[in-house]
Every structure is written in C-alpha cells, then in structure tokens.
Amino acid sequence: MLLVEKGVLLREEIHRSVDWLVSRSPAEGARLVARAWADPEFKARLLTEARAAAAELGLDAGPSPRVVAVENSDEVHHVVVCTLCSCYPRALLGPPPAWYKSLAYRSRAVSDPRGVLAEFGLELDPAVELRVLDSTADIRYLVLPRRPPGTGGLSEDELSELVTRDSMIGVAEPAAAAVM
Amino acid sequence: MRYRLGQRVRVRNAPSVGHVRTPGYVKGKTGRVERVHGVFGDPESLAYGGDGLPGQPLYLVGFEQREVWSGYAGGACDRVYVDVYEHWPEEAP
Q1: Cross-chain Cβ contact B73/A115 below 8 Å
Q2: A5 domain residue, yes or no
C-alpha cells in the first residue's frame, strides 16, 4: 500500500503492529479493573495515569493514543463511543465488537444512550447521571465498572472473571458473583 | 492553554473543511471544560500528510444532553463529553 511503497513503513512493521493489536483481549483490561477493585491506591493511580498503572501489571497501553480510565459509581455511569469512526482502547481490550463500529451504535449512543443501554439489558435509574464519552481525538476511554455486590471474598483472578468487555465499554454491568 | 478546567466554552459553529474531528452535534453548543489533556498534533494537518504543527491543546468538554438534543428523552443530569482541539471552542458569553 501507499505507506509501504513510499518507504515510510516496512510491510513487516505494519504486520507486527496489527498482529500485536489484534492479539490483545478484554482479559487484559479485566486485570486492571480487578486490581483497581481490590486495591484503592492502585485505583487512584489508574484513574490518574492509566498507562503507568497498566505497566505495573505488565500491560502496555501504548504511548499513543492515550488511555484514560473513568470510574462508574452509584451516581455516575459512563458509556464510550466513537461517533466519527471506531476509536477504542485496543491496546488494552483488543479489537472492538462489530456493533461498536455500527452506524446504529455510533449515532444512537450519543443521542439516545438510555435507549441503547436498555437494548443491552441495562436500565439505569433516572437519577443516575449518564455520561457518554465520544472519543473524537487522541484519547481512548476505558470504563472502570462498579464492583458487584457480594464479591468481598473473591481473589483478584476471580474478580477479573466478572469483568466483561461490555462493562468496560459501559453498555453493561459486570457479571454478578455466582451464588454458592 | 487558553482554557481552564471548569470554564464554560462554546464550540464554534463553523463549517468543517477537510478532516475535522469536532462532531457536528456540538457545534454552537456551550459546555464546560472537564479535562485538559495537553497538546497533540493537529489532526486537520496530519490527515493530509502535514506535520500536525502547531500542536493544539486538547480539552474534554462536557455538555448537558438536553441542551444538545431537542427532545432528549433521558435523565435531566445526563451529559455528553467530547474531546475538542483548542481552535474549535471559544469563550462562552
């Protein structure tokens, strides 16, 4: 292609970068979330500077685009979209799902986010502030979902299994702890 | 950085020429600076092989949904946040 023809990039460099990006998976982001749930000081570092926090777990969020983590709470719920294209924190979550790249999601997530969430099975209380983040520039947003109730006794590995890709986009809550 | 955290800014209602990353739905709308991300290469130059200089400060600006969309059917507190480069917002009246 053009960049290779003009000698800007080697074909191998492109393949390596693409291979690396598509080999990332939501399991990596889930580890970050689980650690944040278990360790409040790590959570504070994650919310301040996600790349450095990810590096503590051996994860590379990449220098560019910059990843910023945003925290859900009882009062605030975040959902992420890229209306212009399909910007997504690929370095931590891997490739985005097909629906995230769809015209339907990209147009409705900003104008009718509660309708979109309802279609994903998530009904938010009207008093909860719903914040839609449109990743229009150099920042990629990662949602830190709320820790499910009844998970106090779980290990970090067990916690990370509850963290779904969709909960880190914001269209769903994490999985509930299994009832023993 | 021309704008500071918490400042009210209005996105210019100017036509998009070439590659512009300011979405149409916030043009002419007034919001508040929620984050100051730092300086980044200007995408309007980078998209055409330019060097992206001078770099543009990038701001996360938050808007009330009911002010962006007429007939917004969600919660009164709902907001939409957009990252905009400095040459798009102006000081709100």
Answers
A1: yes
A2: no
